[in-house]
Amino acid sequence: MGNTFFLVHGAWNSSWCWEKLRPLLEAKGHTVIAPDMPGHGEDKLLIEDQNLEKYARAVEALIEPLDGPVILVGHSFGGMIISQAACYIPNKIKRLVYVSAFLPQDGQSCVRITKSLKPTFHEKILASGSDFILSEDRKTSKVTPETCADFIYSDIPRNQALMLAQHLGPESNAAQKQAVVLNDTFYDIPKAYVRCSLDQTIDIMLQDKMIAETHCDAVYTLETGHCPFESAPNSLAKILLSL
């Protein structure tokens, strides 16, 4: 009997990002669930009203009715979401998988983690001559196509990266500033981390810092940028299928 992979996208993104990976898992007899987080993609909720807890509760609501435990996979900011969601439904989680993702400790927010290693992602964007695009009410942010090409899709041909950037939308600033509230059950759930050694968004040194702070029973490395589901979907699928 196959596994159920529940895939959680990162900030600014939506479920479309898994379109190359999904069929590779399904072809091996596994079930794949890859929803849009509230306010992202096809979801109609207002993004400016969202926060980390709402994202995690949305994941909980989708997993709770399922028959068996899932392999819960988070990319980038999705690591914050799966960590919080796992605390709500630990008995429904077979394993947590972090794909170049934030792996928090209790009380940490995404913003706090990024500030723990210099230069931060924001500082690198500023140094490149760009910046986040803030909404008028400063509740949401977006990234420019150039930032996407330079950092998020840095190992993908630039013309293709610029096209992929068109799929990205606004992200809730409140979600990125909200801290996780983890419990003891979180640390009991098996965890795997997929390091992306060429990542220009979450630096490999920051990835390794998070791995050192929270035990992962399996650690893998891909020589890719931030989004291996785009640049190396077969390699990422091979790792997930081995779990």
Short description:
37% of the residues lie in helices and 16% in strands. With 243 residues, the protein is α/β, with parallel strands linked by helices.
Number of domains: 1
Q: How much is the radius of gyration in Å?
A: 16 Å
Helix content percent band: 25-40%
Q: Any idea what the CATH superfamily is called? A: Alpha/Beta hydrolase fold, catalytic domain
Could you describe the largest sheet, including whether it forms a barrel?
6 strands, parallel
Question: Any overview of this molecule?
Answer:
It is a single chain. With 243 residues, the protein is α/β, with parallel strands linked by helices. It has a single domain (4-241), classed as Alpha/Beta hydrolase fold, catalytic domain (Rossmann fold), CATH 3.40.50.1820. 37% of the residues lie in helices and 16% in strands. The chain has 12 helices and 9 strands. The protein has helices at residues 22-26, 52-63, 78-88, 110-114, 121-127, 145-152, 158-165, 173-177, 184-188, 204-213, 228-231, 233-241; strands at residues 4-8, 31-33, 70-75, 93-99, 133-134, 140-142, 171-172, 191-196, 218-222. The strands form 2 sheets. Strands 2-1-3-4-8-9 form a 6-stranded parallel beta sheet, with helices on both faces. A 3-stranded antiparallel beta sheet has the order 5-6-7. α10 (204-213) links the parallel β8 (191-196) and β9 (218-222). The longest helix has 12 residues, at 52-63. The two termini are 14 Å apart.
